[in-house]
Write a structure and sequence with these properties.
There is one protein chain. With 336 residues, this protein is of the alpha/beta class. It contains eleven helices and 13 strands. It has a six-stranded mixed sheet, with helices on both faces. The chain has a four-stranded antiparallel sheet with strand order 11-12-10-13, covered by helices on one side. Strands 2-1-4 form a three-stranded antiparallel sheet, with helices on one face. A hairpin with a 2-residue loop joins strand 11 and strand 12. The chain is globular, with a radius of gyration of 23 Å. GO terms for molecular function: ATP binding. It holds the Pfam family ABC_tran.
Length: 336
């Protein structure tokens, strides 16, 4: 495997009229890496992926895929790249298998090779057994997995998935995550966009977090964990007013929340609060973490005022790049 980056985006910017959808973003995805681009709706994730797939052109900046770029290499930029943006394009009136056979034919695979590859990829995405049914009858999750199968037909070096679990039910999310993990385990480079911190945490090695077109963090998931704040707990008691006073006295941040109080602060202080509640004769009806530490950090990064400084820093952690060193990658599954 060469040292060339799977994706190297430097200072990428894209505007739509007055809106700067992607604002001087940089990011690098090494070969073999599972890289997440994370952000809330409208952060600019899909716009980055569209630029990678050559569906739109950046206003400025450089975007290389395995060392190739659209202005220099045209459609060869997508050699070894597969995936899809938003949802895969499939023929609903044809079976899953037939869809894949057509695509294999378009890619010039001979009959025997095509048949073997189609079987392999159907097996990989767990659709063998349902492959002769029309796509029209597939669940949304099955369609997404068929889209991944279509991408895998080409034995890509880089697989780009745009929010692959978006809109899936819990079982569909579980299956899709398991599939992406399996692919990642096979050594394939994966670039995944998501708005779900838990998904990225489970699947990715490194992440770029975007907010309104800008990078607010990039670096390793491990580095992100080190920065995560104490998560909030949802506390429900028989007397929330007095419980709030006691929480405040213990130095905990407390605010009203649906069905009780949101309490944030040191775990020892939280333990002491429980003892205080018991001592004061206040009944405890519920105490549960209402977000994970990483979710707390994600909301902090993507919902605070935009003037706030970025969380990542170059400091001593080489994996924690600053925003102006930025990294990014995006893709879509356009077949050419
Ligand atoms: N073709 C376009 N014309 C005008 N505005 C656009 C266009 N494409 C995207 N935008 C705007 O650019 C911003 C970023 O959109 P983008 O789709 O990249 O975000 P995203 O992070 O992928 O969000 P989502 O998860 O909702 O898809 C949004 O404000 C969006 O409305």
């Amino acid at each position: 495997m060469s040292d060339v980056l799977a994706v190297n985006a430097v200072d990428l910017t894209k505007t739509f009229g007055p809106l700067t959808a992607v604002d001087h973003i940089s990011l690098q995805v090494a070969q073999g890496e599972v890289y997440g681009v994370l952000g809330p709706n409208g952060a600019g994730k899909t716009t980055v992926l569209r630029m990678l797939f050559g569906l739109i052109r950046p206003d400025s900046g450089v975007l290389e895929v395995f060392g190739r770029s659209w202005p220099r290499d045209g459609v060869r930029t997508l050699d070894g790249v597969a995936g899809f943006i938003e949802s895969p394009k499939l023929y609903p009136g044809l079976s899953g298998r037939r869809n894949l056979q057509l695509l294999a034919g378009l890619d010039g695979l001979d009959g025997a090779t095509a048949a073997r590859r189609v079987d392999e990829v159907l097996d990989t995405v767990d659709l063998l057994g349902r492959d002769r049914e029309k796509v029209r009858g597939y669940s949304f999750g099955m369609r997404q997995r068929l889209g991944v199968a279509a991408a895998l037909l080409r034995v890509p070096r880089l697989l780009v998935l745009d929010e692959p679990a978006n809109g899936l039910d819990p079982a569909g999310i579980r299956d899709m995550r398991a599939l992406v993990k399996r692919l990642a385990g096979s050594g394939m480079t994966v670039l995944l966009s998501s708005h779900d911190m838990a998904e990225v945490e489970q699947i990715c090695d490194d992440v770029t977090i975007m907010r309104t077109g800008q990078v607010v963090y990039h670096g390793s998931i491990a580095g992100l964990r080190d920065r995560a704040p104490v998560p909030a707990h949802r506390l429900t008691t028989t007397d929330d007013d007095r419980a709030a006073t006691l929480a405040g006295a213990r130095g905990l941040e407390v605010e009203p929340a649906a069905g009780g109080l949101a309490v944030r602060g040191d775990e020892k202080a939280l333990d002491a609060l429980i003892a205080d509640l018991v001592g004061a004769g206040i009944g405890l009806r519920g105490l549960a973490m209402s977000e994970t530490p990483l979710e707390a950090l994600f909301f902090m990064l993507t919902e605070r005022p935009p003037t706030a400084p970025t969380v990542s820093s170059a400091s001593t952690d080489p994996s924690a790049a600053t925003a102006d060193q930025g990294r990014h990658a995006v893709t879509s599954g356009a077949r050419r």
